[in-house]
Amino acid sequence: MTRAELIQQIKIKKSFLCVGLDTDITKIPEHLLAEEDPIYTFNKAIIDATSDLCVAYKPNIAFYESYGIKGWQSLQKTWEALPKDCLSIADAKRGDIGNTSKMYAQAFFDEKQSGLGFDSITIAPYMGNDSVTPFLDFDGKWAIVLALTSNAGSLDFQNFKNESGLQLFEQVIDKVNTWGTIENLMYVVGATRGEGFIKIREHAPDHFLLVPGVGAQGGSLQDVCQYGMNKDCGLLVNSTRGIIYASKGHDFAEKAREEALKLQQEMEAELIKAGIIR
Amino acid sequence: MTRAELIQQIKIKKSFLCVGLDTDITKIPEHLLAEEDPIYTFNKAIIDATSDLCVAYKPNIAFYESYGIKGWQSLQKTWEALPKDCLSIADAKRGDIGNTSKMYAQAFFDEKQSGLGFDSITIAPYMGNDSVTPFLDFDGKWAIVLALTSNAGSLDFQNFKNESGLQLFEQVIDKVNTWGTIENLMYVVGATRGEGFIKIREHAPDHFLLVPGVGAQGGSLQDVCQYGMNKDCGLLVNSTRGIIYASKGHDFAEKAREEALKLQQEMEAELIKAGIIR
Q1: What range(s) does the Orotidine 5'-phosphate decarboxylase domain occupy (chains A, B) (predicted)?
Q2: Alpha-carbon span A122 to A94, nearest angstrom
Q3: If you placed Cys at B238, which of A217, B18, B219, B250 could pair as Cys (CB 3.0 to 4.6 Å)?
């Protein structure tokens, strides 16, 4: 999916919602456990109930990998069920030396080889240039690089400051910017500190940002939009638990839709406020 | 495998060799391509030919994941073929927020859930405390955290210096040290700059270090030992291409053994020189 196509979807759906598919078998409705593949069955129902309200889906690869071969089968089926008008994000936090990152890129981008053809993947930048650039060599695919995350541990290293006062996450953005373009690079920026977006936008005014941490992790959509939105929207705001675990009953998909709709409506108001849609 | 058991194996085998299983289907002998699972067949032959000469095996997870479900099946069989007297290392470079890192830990440590029960896993530290500590919660398992890697891009961020002159990789070691012990934490330190080990040993005098980059990547075993060895050896030196791709013919396993034997003999000499064995 190209940048232009993504922006078009945001305008059509009046939404910049990303639905996280961190599907945990201990949290899904009990009646699904009788299914052959409960995780896939759950995901398919969530996707069908929300796909007109969101522009992206983000399976968290750990939740599949933790069940080994069986989990990888659920992931394969889930990927196949993702609608083509949504950006598919493999939330994998991969990154290794060049030849290995190339293999990870094939794992998530090269459908002929691996069975999976995600549009994008999240990347950990610690190993530098050759760990990131192999993901940028695939036409129409995106690398979404960790910049400032929303978890407690994010302050351990991401705020590490050099003698000029530049923090590591700023250095990451400045360097990584030179390796790709706004057509194939995004950054992960946590929502838990709204004003944090001011600094991010100084370094990456035009890039799309993938924003976890709204909802269960405590971030506010309004703050994120106030400080993080740009003229093309430039935001994909993720929600997981608030949507997919809205109910543990037979109505889980309906309740998920209701929660997604609430967020879509808030997002529509923000897009109107910013003059991106009418 | 505990620290004491690992040190014992090093003394018994007179070796601190780790064999990397970065098995690339385009580089293995052509006659194996007729096998049902060429990657596993190759790995099994390499393991059988080298297991008395090394103390660890390190499958590089990307090389399996790049073939999707089929690759994961090769990984599963490979893990089952690893001998119990060798430390098994999932070279996965994982790391995410706490609940997700826990899932990754289950993927590689929790045999009952995932089918895989590796002894250790490599971890990317960018996301900080909660991305690392879930891997430390498993008895008898190890987190091997990236500190100073051997690739070209390692200088992009790992050398980022604060106002006191402390570099990021030093900050990583200092912080991560406080989260675990020498019984469940190791660091990845590339071999390409031997003197780099002096600084590493200032911050982590007693930890085991996993050292890639000897051989194909240009590092010298002598330099690594001179600057990096401690009284318990404290090193696991990885070699991949020099061993597993020593021949593309029917003799690939014999040639792999010959190369592993050369390294084992050099290592034996270093262990004697250091007074660790006689």
Answers
A1: 16-256
A2: 7
A3: B18
Which B-chain residues 40-69 have CB contacts (< 8 A) with chain A? 60, 62-63, 65-69
Q: How many cross-chain Cβ pairs, A to B, lie less than 8 Å apart?
A: 204
User: What crossing angle do the helices spanning A252-273 and A38-50 adopt, rounded to 10°?
Assistant: 40
pLDDT at A271 over 90: yes
Count of Cβ atoms closer than 10 Å to residue A251 Cβ? 13
Banded pLDDT at B80 (limits 50, 70, 90): very high
Catalytic residue among A44, A93, A199, A255: A93
- Closest chain B residue to A173 measured between Cα atoms? B157
Q: Would the CB atoms of A69 and B62 count as touching at under 8 Å? A: no
Return residues 87-126 of A near B (CB < 8 Å): 91, 93-101, 103-104, 106-107, 110, 113-116, 124-126
Asked if A27 is an active-site residue, the reply is no
Q: In which residue are the tokens 């003799």 written? A: B251
What pLDDT, in 10s, does the model give residues B133-160? 999 999 999 999 999 998 999 999 999 9
Q: Is residue B278 part of a domain?
A: no
Per CB-CB distance under 8 Å, the chain B contacts of A110 are: 66
Query: Over A91-140, what HEC string results?
Result: EEEECCCHHHHHHHHHHHHCHHHHCCCCCEEEECCCCCHHHHHHHHHCCC
Locate B195 and state its tokens. Answer: 């003197």
Give the residues across from A252 on adjacent strands: none
- What's the rounded Cα separation, in Å, for the pair B165 and B163? 5
Report how many domains make up chain A: 1
Say which CATH number the domain at B33 has.
3.20.20.70
Residue A216 has pLDDT above 80, yes or no: no
User: Any CB–CB contact under 8 A between B25 and chain A?
Assistant: no
Torsion of the alpha carbons at B150, B124, A129 and A107, rounded to the nearest 10: 110
Residue B106: domain span: 3-273
Q: What is the ipTM of this complex?
A: 0.97
3-state secondary structure chain B: CCHHHHHHHHHHHCCCEEEEECCCCCCCCHHHHHCCCHHHHHHHHHHHHHCCCCCEEEEEHHHHHCCHHHHHHHHHHHHHHCCCCCEEEEEEEECCCHHHHHHHHHHHHCHHHHCCCCCEEEECCCCCHHHHHHHHHCCCCEEEEEEECCCCCHHHHCCCEECCCCEHHHHHHHHHHCCCCCCCEEEEECCCCCCHHHHHHHHCCCCEEEECCECCCCECHHHHHHHHCECCECEEEEECHHHHCCCCCCCHHHHHHHHHHHHHHHHHHHHHHCCCCC
Does B157 sit within 8 Å of A162, measured CB to CB? no
Query: Token digits for A267?
Result: 């997002």
Is position A278 within any domain?
Answer: no
Whole-angstrom Cα distance, residue B100 to residue A89?
16
* B132 closest CA partner among B167, B171, B87, B102: B102
Tell whether A141 is covered by a domain: yes
CA distance readout (Å), A222 to A7, A264, B229: 20, 13, 54
